[in-house]
Amino acid sequence: MKSSRTMSLSARFGVFCASLGLFFVLWEVAALSSGSSLILVGPIPVLQALVALLQNHLPRGTLGIQGANAAILQTLATIVLGFILACIVGIPVGLIMGRWKTAEALIDPWLSAAYSIPIVILIPMLYFAIGADFYAEVFVTFLLTVFTIIVNTHHGVKYVSNALAEVGKSYGASESQFLAKIILPASMPDIISGMRIGMGRAILAAVLAEVLMSGNGLGGMMMTFQDVLNTPYMMAVVFLIALMGIAVLQLPKVLERRLFRWKGTESLSREIRR
Amino acid sequence: MKSSYAKCIILSGTLIIFVAVWWVIAAALNNPREIVGPFQTGTAFISLFTDPPLTRLLIAGLQVTMLSILLGFALAVMVGVPIGVLMGRYLIVDLFCDPWVNIWYSIPAIAFVPLAMNWTGVSATSSVIIAFLITVFTVIINVYGGVKNISGSLIDSGLAYGATQTQVMTKIILPAALPNIMVSLRLGISRAIEGVVIAEMVFTVVGLGGLMDDAADNLQLALSGALIIILAIISLALAEGMKYIAGRALAWKESQAMVRE
């Protein structure tokens, strides 16, 4: 059995570099063997296009769309606004559900429905009901994000350890003290983890809303480049969206690990929820 | 634990409230170009089954959508479970794959849509590719977590009694990781559904999602609403079916695994 449980740091780094290198080689090989720049282009043209986009240069023939920086800013604004709204609504609802059985019983059917049915199917209908402007997209982002935040907050509050709760009760904590000093800190890792996953959902929601509704922002730009078969620029936008997702979902995990070391690995292992 | 009777009341109450609110909003706005009420949608829903041309469209769309979901999901499971097991078992595979699995897992589904359109066009094949791509990493991460957390004493005692590598794999690792594999299937199926629906809505010509988007574009909002209900029923059925399978597969383990999810 050669499954060594430990490995030196430099060996780990070596394997990581090999993995990174292999990916770019595979990408280049796939691009070359696809035989057409319409199907797939290698990493270098994509990175060039990405740099051009970040410097606000658009290729010829796509004059109809927003400037690159304006598109990026609009998408970011949609994500952030929708996400903040989802937190403002989702965290209190999750808290209430975790604390009061009646609220839990009443809200739970909505939650399970929203979790088993892909809410994205509502977008074409919402298009007609609320229009296709910036605020409609913020609303879609809110709608696709809020349930993730509610579920994770609810879960964190509901499973606060009994030992903690009983100590609070027997020392005569008032309900507000109980919430502020026991429930909130103890469920914070779950809330944060829900916010992290929710932020990932917000990116998906905002870009999807742009593709299906207004055609502005990064999503609109991505589909425009797809339409005019400008593969390097299209892949650069895809790359940018992917980078946003990675930054939002992976970086906070590192922070989480540092901030909540006292809570052990519990919140990290639970991160499988959508 | 709530009795199933009370649960039934709450569920039907929720449904009634939902339809009532929908009806009131639709009646208040009274603009069939913005929102259609539950009655028109219900009529359209019935016409989906009684009007032969519509029924034909529905069946064709249903076939394509179900096939895309199930194919993408099955491929993701066939690829994801072995990779997850290998990553959990061998450190070198873990180190090699872990960054990529996490990175690809974090990419929003919509980013794969234009790529797949370039590769295989606006087709059901593209839906399958997208469903596969957004499902497979969820499966890998969950299976990996399960295999990684198997207590070493289980494996060590197996080895001490002279189990071969294959026996360790089939008799110890797979049964012990089964709860996580089942969780990965349940999360995976909903990701696959979402992926296919997103792809079809963007393509607008493939499957039920395309039919629904197309109906909305033609201002047939009632038909679009009826198709949304059909898609919702399919998703619920698939999710519940997967829950049932998971429950059956884990019946021999105590209820712990079910709670954990």
What does this entry look like structurally?
The complex is a heterodimer of chains A (274) and B (261). Chain A has 274 residues and is mainly α. Chain A has a single domain, classed as Orthogonal Bundle (MetI-like fold). Chain A is built from eleven helices and no strands. The longest helix of chain A is centred in the last third of the chain and has 40 residues. The radius of gyration of chain A is 23 Å and the shape is globular. The C terminus of chain A is likely disordered. Chain B has 261 residues and is an all-alpha fold. Chain B has one domain: Orthogonal Bundle (MetI-like fold), CATH 1.10.3720.10. Helices cover 84% and strands 0% of the residues of chain B. In chain B, α5 packs across α6 and α8 packs parallel to α9. Chain B starts with a helix and ends with a helix. At the A-B interface, α1, α4, α5, α8 and α9 of A face α1, α4, α5, α6 and α8 of B.
Low-confidence stretches of chain A: 265-274
CATH class assignment of chain A: Mainly Alpha
Cα shape of chain A:
globular
Rg of chain A, rounded, reads 23 Å
Could you tell me the CATH topology label of chain B.
Answer: MetI-like fold
Number of domains of chain B: 1
Report helical residue fraction of chain B.
over 70%
> Quick one: CATH class of chain B?
Mainly Alpha
Low-confidence stretches of chain B: 256-261
Order of helices and strands of chain A: HHHHHHHHHHH
Beta-strand content bin of chain A: under 5%
Oligomer: heterodimer
Average pLDDT of chain A, to the nearest integer?
83
Architecture of chain B, according to CATH? Orthogonal Bundle
